[in-house]
Specification:
Elements (H helix, E strand, L loop, with lengths): L8 H18 L15 H9 L11 H4 L6 E8 L7 H11 L3 E5 L7 H11 L3 E2 L9 E4 L4 E9 L10 E9 L2 E9 L4 H14 L6 E6 L7 H7 L3 E2 L16 E5 L4 E7 L10 E6 L11 E2 L2
Parallel strand pairs: 1-2, 7-8, 11-13
Antiparallel strand pairs: 1-12, 2-4, 3-4, 5-6, 6-7, 8-10, 9-10, 11-12
Helix pairs in contact: 4-5, 6-7
Length: 296
């Protein structure tokens, strides 16, 4: 009902119908009597367009999200290039891969890095484990993964090079405890070898280990050998550059107490590295042995 306007004498009766008609013309269409209400307002639509990753991530149960059987674990290791190719695209890729654990390199580490990491994890249906910058390393987990303890270790910064770090956690999944760690090694060979030694020294030895890293060198290099000592090298496909991969710079290394069931480098346009996807099970496998089949 239009608001009552205060007029005096005869002017009120003569002017009220015209004023009421004018108010009806000014009333927004979606508030007019007998018309259905419209969707979100312009400000809400603008906010959704600017921040598409603000929506909550998937809320599926662990059983609904899992695309593998009991006694199996999916790990993704991925250099996400500081989300420069788009946080929504990275979140969609992670959501489609459905990892139980995601080991990320070059996660946001500058302005608003905490907010960016939390939004990425939420949009991908994962939870953030690590709470420090950690040289751009981050660890995310899915439903059903219990974190028993976690660690971040920053290494000494060398002149002219980025500070390097390692992150990790001891987790329990389907009744099995194991450790997952990640790092991003240096471009300089001497520093790369030093970081590799420090990464392995920081990892626990009491439980089976899975290690994901952007090694910045190919298999056969000294740093790669230091990281892989005593572990099964699960990969095989080139991972860099993403649009036409020719070099394998990214590793997922697995304790021989676990079985590598499948592995692949997944195609992507959301970074300059391909994500490495690995499914493991609980039966033993010998170091250097054949490692299952690739995912289709």
């Amino acid at each position: 009902e239009p608001p009552q306007l205060l007029w005096s004498g005869d002017d009120r009766h003569r002017g009220q119908p015209a004023v009421a008609a004018h108010l009806r013309r000014l009333r927004p269409a979606h508030l007019a009597p007998g018309r259905p209400t419209a969707g979100p307002g312009r400000a809400a639509r603008r906010g959704a367009a600017r921040h598409p990753d603000r929506r909550d991530g998937p809320t599926d149960s662990p059983a609904a999200r899992r695309c593998h059987g009991a006694g199996q674990l999916r790990i993704v290791s991925w250099n996400v290039r500081s989300l420069r190719d788009g946080a929504p695209a990275v979140a969609r890729q992670l959501g489609a891969l459905r990892p139980d654990i995601a080991v990320l390199q070059e996660a946001p580490r500058l302005l608003l890095w905490r907010t960016s990491r939390r939004r990425l994890a939420r949009a991908a249906g994962l939870r953030l484990v690590t709470r420090r910058r950690a040289g751009g390393n981050a660890l995310l987990i899915g439903p059903g993964v219990e974190v028993l303890n976690s660690w971040v270790e920053d290494f000494p910064k060398l002149p002219g090079l980025h500070r390097r770090s390692t992150v990790g956690a001891v987790i329990r999944y389907d009744g099995r405890a194991l450790a997952v760690a990640g790092s991003h090694l240096d471009l300089a060979a001497d520093a790369r070898r030093d970081t590799a030694r420090r990464v392995r020294a920081a990892a626990p030895v009491a439980v089976p280990l899975i290690l994901g890293a952007d090694v910045n060198e190919q298999p056969g290099g000294a740093a790669w050998a230091l990281l892989a000592a005593g572990l099964v090298d699960a990969g095989g496909q080139p991972t860099f550059p993403a649009d036409r991969p020719t070099r394998r710079l990214d590793a997922l290394l697995v304790d021989p107490a676990l079985t590598v069931l499948s592995h692949r480098a997944a195609p992507t346009s959301a970074s300059d590295h391909l994500p490495v996807v690995l499914d493991v099970g609980w039966a033993p496998v010998s170091p250097g042995s054949s490692v299952g089949h690739e995912l289709r």
